[in-house]
Amino acid sequence: MGKRSRQRQKNQTPGRDDRDNADWGTGYADIVKENKLFEHYYTELGLVPGGEFEQFMDAMREPLPATIRITGYKSHAKEILHCLKEKYFKDIQEVEIDGQKIEAPQPLCWYPDEQAWHTNMSRKIIRKSPLLEKFHQFLVSETESGNISRQEAVSMIPPLLLKIESHHKILDMCAAPGSKTAQLIEMLHSDMDVPFPEGFVIANDVDNKRCYLLVHQAKRLNSPCIMVVNHDATCIPTLQIESGGKKGSLFYDRILCDVPCSGDGTMRKNIDVWKKWTTREGGCVCAFVTTQEFMQLLQLRIAVRGVEQLAVGGRMVYSTCSLNPIEDEAVIAALLEKSEGNNHTHTHTHTHTLPGSCNLSNIFWTFFLLMTKEGHWFADWSEVPSHRRTQIRPTMFPPTEPEKLADMHLERCMRILPHHQNTGGFFVAVLVKKAPMPWNRRYPKLRKDVSSGSAAQTEGSPAASTPADAPRLTESAPVEEEEREGGGPEGDESAAKQDGVCGPPASKKMKLFGYKEDPFVFLTEEDPVFITIQSFYNLAPNFPKLNVLTRTHDGKKRNLYMVSKELRNVLLNNSERMKVINTGVKVWSRNSDGEEFGCPFRLAQEGIYTLQPYIRSRIIRVSVEDIKVLLTQENPYLSKLEDNAHAQAKKLVMGSIVLKYIPNPDNTEDPQCPIQLCGWRGKTSIRAFVPRNERFHYLRLLGVEVFREKQGVGKEGEKEGKEEPGKVAGEEEAAAAAAAVEKEAELDLENGDENASSEPKK
């Protein structure tokens, strides 16, 4: 600790300790939860049903319940749920603090399979009970392992409404910090027996630094079907893919359009909004939005670009955490009007129906009032004086024709008010594309890619990029294709192309966008690295060698990654169109010591579930007791394994191995999910190469009590005896994960999509 830090600690005022022991809202003691302008605006608007406004405001002032979500695509999800119910929730019901029983977490009744839970426990209460402290540490560790996500309840709704299937091509337009993106990935991997789903997720964000937070969130799920890109969502490029020997435009089956907004529905967790909320032309603004005087126009431009990229028959979900109709229904109405209503796009009939035994309430609004910061109200575009028409636009008001308004079916949108289900405020609408957009209608009919069922379309298809002579939008029109795609002169593009390489644009362009990324270089089937890998691991003949990539042109390949076949197609055909931040899952890491044993690459735990189906040797079947030994001891001797595993290990030469546990349905006391670990068979010992939080995760599944002291020292013990696991030598950790681990001691149960920040590559 530095001298200044010690001095600050010495001179710390008593108020600091009081804040540490405070309830929800810690750090906001000076902020009064009142905003007369906010109350006046929503009272006049009449958005809250009659007689409920006081309940609405009382709920807005209450702290938001903490919510967690179990990642549903992993086969371990049921085991984690069982662990939560049997090991923590049952005991929490018996806990008493200050003479009052603690209310155990409850499932969100509308989320499928009890995979989402909420609780009102505060940090103050947690610190008063050792059991609750252990529960908190469990959540922290499982979050870092990617098995649990802390996510606000209403934030979970948009991905559910997309109704994703494993073959869908998905675009998340404004993805950071990534909690919804994680849901999309989980839904793609609903069947764990399929290592490479046909579909993929392209997660985009305009902020370069936030893209690295997005990478951290996605990396926890270890999927080969996710790609993170960095573009302005209003002009995100149209990508090309190859199908049947011809190039065509990629159009998405599903698009999540969770746009930037004023965020006044988040007052329960972002308490600064109370102080900084105000009205301004184009909607409401607060400190969490960067000078968005034309917020609604930005939202509309993003939504229009999203619909342009949507395949005919595809589904787009538009959502905001704002309650303001100008940011919500007005955007949907303007979008439908631009697309000529039901002829091209329509709001879906069942947007208010969610899976589960209960549904969220549905509040919609078709009467928009706009209030300026001076307090002037406008109910119609005709009332706006000419000197204000440069800031206030017609799209901020509903259509004046009653028939046109009725045809839009804005009643199918869904607004969630905080006092109805004890949540944050939220708005969501589902749009289904029925035909190409009006400015594309001249062009030939869409050619379906029957072989893959994807949304690939030929360059001349109606949903392809808008040609220069096509009808254009006047306001919020998409920019010209060259600007949209960020492409330079053709000579520059062709010079940058190399076989099997997808890299970022030239370095002089990259400086405009942030940190320079290493290229993505796909290996050929004849690459020399496969010679030793193939023989050492006895890879299956159907192993997709062409899906393996590295991040360097020159020198030794340090790490090898895998992506799905469809993402490879996207990468190879769009190297100059998009800036890729990250993609692929690591499957092998170079190990110089391994060369003398026959293979210089050892298996990586991140990609073991993707890679293992293709490995036909170097596999040791282990039991529950074997895994306990491997995860709680640094370098156990081979003799510590049970007889069966010991005999298998003795037959293998030194080097990287797969430790595989297959559940026994007849023994329900043991975990009923498969477990696969990377390991190393030494001369006389054996070890597991598993990151610390994943060790804790697997030990909990095996019934081992795992907890940490406040100083960060880990302890693992069973009823009989305790053993301390050593550090996992040789495992590389991403900067984002390292930063997250450092913050674990400070982590609380407060809501928020951000689990940790990540450092970009410079």
List the defining traits of the structure above.
9-stranded mixed β-sheet, 34 strands, disordered C terminus, tRNA-binding, PUA_NSUN2, transferase
Structure description:
- A hairpin with a 5-residue loop joins strand 33 and strand 34.
- This protein is globular.
- The two termini are 27 Å apart.
- Helix 12 packs across helix 13.
- With 762 residues, the protein is an alpha+beta fold.
- The strands form nine sheets. Strands 7, 8, 9, 12, 15, 16, 19, 20 and 26 form a nine-stranded mixed sheet that branches.
- The active site is at residue 321.
- Keywords: Methyltransferase, Nucleus, RNA-binding, S-adenosyl-L-methionine, Transferase, tRNA processing, tRNA-binding.
- It is found in: Nucleus; Secreted, Extracellular exosome.
Brief characterization of the structure:
With 762 residues, this protein is α+β, with helices and mostly antiparallel strands. 27% of the residues lie in helices and 18% in strands.
